[in-house]
């Protein structure tokens, strides 16, 4: 990772302002020659907007309003100003052409979780906080850590605003020094953690120092080398009195110019004509509301203007456009052949803000003739305002967006259906959007579908994980806390001793679901994700009540006649396919420090007594496997455990492979995953079979490499249609009859409750259908009551409360009977319909 901003390519360095030709002849504000982005980061009310306006206008400016999403202020600091006098060195003609795009990003909490997407090595972050607000002061160190997690070693500037509002006592207390002290202590703690792990690895004997250990030491040393020193100063300013504004201008300009000078060379060539033409094309496409293009389309733009352009030169020109802030290349965490490129980053930032509605206070005004034009007969299919309001409230209160609502949320961006779909796809690739269950039996919502966007359906729903509104309830029917006897299970744990940036873990869950080929969706809750790949269950979750932040990935399968070792091989291959995605995602956060350990189930080790959880450092077990040892000793809370290394690590691979390359090798092994075993669908947030693989993008078959071996997963026995496993124990201690009965009752209650919930839902659907004359058999209020009762039954099924589920079913049946007793006018043939409880039971 670069320590400084990447310098401009030789095409534009040390040239006078007029040497860049037509790129600057029209307007300095549209110059491409020397352009950079300044990103103002801070919470709401920190003073970002006032600071941005003051920097650009040259005079003190204040703003009482709140930024709704993003405002971009174009600043030409050396065009008709005296700011050159603030700097120590004389400027070249090229440097005088500097243009800065000052981004004023809105500071709501949820929006801060995706600000890092626009942090690049060429971007200068400026942390802004309100000196008169203690909560704003407390956020400074968190924002600085976010910046350095994404771009380690990035230069940054810290500005404390509202200094004019401080009393004499607050000025004497010097909050700035307190903030700097917090960051120094945090820095020392981080360095100590990393140095301790390096020390432990170096203390291993020569025989124990495997290539993977040496690679880990090298990686940790690289983290230390790029680990930034803590900030030493904070600029105190006031946009009202203009105090400190020149200091802010000087530091911004000096930081950008110094970074470019460190990367410059003496001789250069003018900007390539093809690059200038591509820039003109991008400007034209922006006017046509284009935001995202594929990498292939970008390649076609270059080849259109310069035939025979080499891939290396084209890559350099694309990098130059990204450095200038014109485009932003999106990292693809899957094996997709065609990456996406954002050609209008400010509009993408606005789209993210507009869709992440954190409250219901925003007022909307939609143009009916644009979204619901009149048909040839003169009628318009405008939705009921109440239905539209309900759909908007679902975003802020449930974190769910109906697909047909995206054009309405993004109405001021004026995008067509193709661009809307591309952005939806882009958000899914970035882990910011997750396919949820389709909404069924909701005819009123059909009116939300837009004639000009026929491919966007109202029943298709997407969840916004960063809003934190994903259901809390985890799976109870398809995953037990511990595996049954006869099940093989392996866990992979990421431990983050220094914590994670906001939003990283929810995005990691979505990444693994969306970008892993062959993953079948089962259940998604606030702290985890349950998937299937063949007959292998995959549970990705964040452990509860943990002092240190962790993420666990478990894989589980039933061992059949082919034995433990073959089942373990299948587990590792499936696990690796998810870990390849996870590793790529974590690699996009080069400043995030984590450790890896393995969590084997009890079938892989023996112990004197039951062990709640056995955690083994990954490098330790890889070292033993490379030495071809059959077993290894592990101490857990003063207990000795003997781990069967031969069974746990059947595919250690080449000892020279890095962990990432070893996982890629595992993921490419050819295994034939059979159909998944029958399982009860989780009542909450389920997707139909046709949608089990995210329809946001096609999921290709897993990549196949030239593997030296072909693995076959343990076959699923076909002599039984389904099987209920009674969880007794995983250890060898004797289980009491009382415990057996308790476990049996719990499983049976869950099963019965699930059957009741499913039955009442099916009956409600059947009874609410229209008769031959088009009349509805149930009144609307009764249907609502029945639906509410069935929802309560499903909730009771989740907790295994059969009695509560039964009571909810009774309530649903009563609601239906009440509706059916109502005689409609003019229909004398309508008779009373008896209770359907017998049908349900």
From TrEMBL:
Composition-biased stretches, type Low complexity, lie in 689-698
Question: For the Roc domain, which residue ranges apply?
Answer: 29-259
Molecular function terms, GO-annotated: nucleotide binding
Q: Where is this region: Disordered?
A: 1-24, 677-718
Which superkingdom? Eukaryota
What InterPro entries does this protein map onto? HBP1 (IPR039655), P-loop_NTPase (IPR027417), ROC (IPR020859)
Query: What are the GO BP annotations of this UniProt entry?
Result: regulation of DNA-templated transcription
User: What name appears for this protein in its UniProt entry?
Assistant: Roc domain-containing protein
């Amino acid at each position: 990772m670069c320590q400084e901003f990447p310098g401009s390519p030789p095409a534009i360095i040390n040239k006078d302002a007029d040497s860049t030709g037509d790129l600057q002849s029209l307007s300095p504000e549209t110059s491409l020659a020397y352009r950079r982005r300044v990103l103002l980061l801070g919470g709401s009310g920190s003073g970002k907007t006032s600071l941005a306006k003051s920097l650009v206008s040259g005079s003190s400016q204040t703003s009482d309003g709140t930024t709704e999403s993003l405002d971009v202020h174009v600043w030409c600091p050396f065009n008709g100003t005296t700011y050159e006098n603030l700097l120590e060195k004389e400027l070249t003609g090229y440097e005088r052409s500097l243009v800065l795009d000052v981004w004023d990003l809105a500071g709501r909490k949820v929006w801060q979780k995706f600000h890092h997407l626009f942090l690049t090595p060429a971007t200068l972050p400026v942390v802004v906080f309100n000196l008169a607000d203690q909560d704003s002061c407390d956020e400074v160190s968190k924002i600085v850590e976010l910046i350095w997690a994404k771009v380690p070693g990035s230069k940054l500037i810290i500005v404390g605003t509202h200094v004019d509002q401080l009393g004499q006592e607050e000025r004497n207390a010097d909050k700035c020094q307190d903030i700097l002290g917090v960051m120094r202590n945090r820095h020392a703690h981080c360095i100590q953690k990393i140095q301790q792990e390096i020390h432990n690895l170096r203390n291993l004997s020569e025989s124990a120092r495997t290539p993977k250990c040496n690679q880990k030491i090298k990686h940790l040393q690289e983290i230390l080398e790029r680990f930034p020193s803590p900030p030493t100063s904070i600029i105190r300013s006031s946009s009202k009195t203009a105090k400190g504004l020149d200091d802010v201008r000087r530091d911004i300009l000096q930081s950008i110019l110094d970074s470019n000078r460190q990367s410059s060379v003496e001789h250069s060539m003018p900007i390539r004509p093809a690059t200038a033409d591509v820039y003109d094309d991008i400007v034209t496409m922006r006017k046509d509301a284009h935001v995202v293009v594929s990498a292939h389309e970008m390649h076609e733009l270059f080849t259109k203007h310069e035939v025979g352009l080499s891939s290396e030169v084209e890559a350099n020109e694309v990098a130059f456009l990204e450095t200038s802030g014109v485009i932003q290349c999106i990292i693809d965490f899957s094996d997709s052949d065609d990456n996406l490129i954002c050609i209008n980053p400010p509009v993408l930032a606005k789209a993210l803000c507009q869709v992440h509605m954190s409250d219901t206070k925003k007022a909307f005004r939609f143009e009916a003739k644009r979204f619901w034009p009149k048909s040839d007969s003169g009628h318009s299919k405008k939705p009921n305002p109440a239905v539209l309001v309900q759909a908007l409230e679902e975003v802020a209160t449930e974190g769910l967006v109906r697909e047909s609502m995206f054009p309405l949320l993004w109405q001021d961006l004026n995008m067509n259906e193709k661009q809307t779909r591309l952005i939806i796809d882009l958000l899914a690739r970035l882990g910011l959007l997750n396919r949820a269950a389709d909404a069924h039996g909701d005819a009123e919502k059909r009116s939300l579908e837009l004639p000009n966007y026929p491919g966007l359906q109202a029943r298709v729903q997407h969840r916004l994980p960063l809003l934190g509104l994903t259901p809390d309830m985890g799976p109870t029917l398809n995953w037990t806390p511990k595996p049954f006897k006869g099940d093989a299970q392996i866990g992979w744990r990421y431990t983050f001793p220094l914590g994670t940036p906001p939003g990283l873990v929810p995005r990691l869950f979505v990444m693994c679901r969306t970008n892993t080929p062959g993953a079948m969706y089962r259940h998604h809750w606030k702290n985890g994700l349950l998937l299937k790949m063949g007959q292998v269950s995959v549970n990705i979750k964040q452990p509860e009540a943990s002092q240190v932040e962790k993420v666990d990935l478990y894989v589980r399968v039933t061992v059949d006649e082919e034995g433990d070792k073959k089942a373990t091989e299948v587990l590792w291959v499936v696990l690796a396919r998810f870990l390849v995605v996870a590793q790529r995602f974590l690699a996009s956060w080069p400043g995030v420090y984590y450790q890896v350990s393995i969590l084997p189930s009890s079938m892989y080790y023996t112990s004197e007594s039951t062990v709640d959880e056995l955690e083994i450092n990954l490098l330790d077990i890889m070292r033993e496997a490379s030495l071809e040892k059959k077993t290894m000793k592990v101490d857990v809370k003063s207990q000795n455990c003997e781990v069967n290394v031969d069974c746990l690590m059947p595919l250690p691979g080449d000892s020279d492979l890095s962990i990432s390359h070893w996982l890629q090798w595992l993921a490419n092994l050819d295994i034939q995953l059979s159909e998944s075993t029958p399982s009860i669908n989780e009542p909450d947030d389920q997707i139909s079979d046709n949608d089990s693989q995210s329809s946001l993008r096609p999921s290709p078959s897993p990549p196949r490499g030239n593997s030296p071996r072909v693995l076959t997963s343990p076959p699923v026995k076909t002599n039984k249609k389904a099987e209920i496993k009674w969880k007794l124990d995983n250890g060898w201690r004797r289980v009491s009859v009382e415990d057996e009965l308790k476990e049996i009752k719990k499983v049976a209650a869950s099963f019965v409750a699930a059957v009741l919930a499913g039955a009442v839902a099916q009956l409600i659907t059947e009874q609410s259908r229209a008769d031959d004359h088009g009349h509805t058999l149930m009144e609307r209020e009764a249907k609502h009551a029945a639906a509410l009762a069935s929802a309560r039954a499903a909730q009771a099924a989740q907790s295994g409360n059969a009695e509560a589920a039964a009571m909810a079913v009774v309530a649903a049946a009563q609601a239906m009977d009440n509706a059916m007793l109502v005689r409609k006018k003019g229909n004398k043939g309508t008779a009373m319909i008896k209770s359907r409880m017998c049908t349900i039971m």
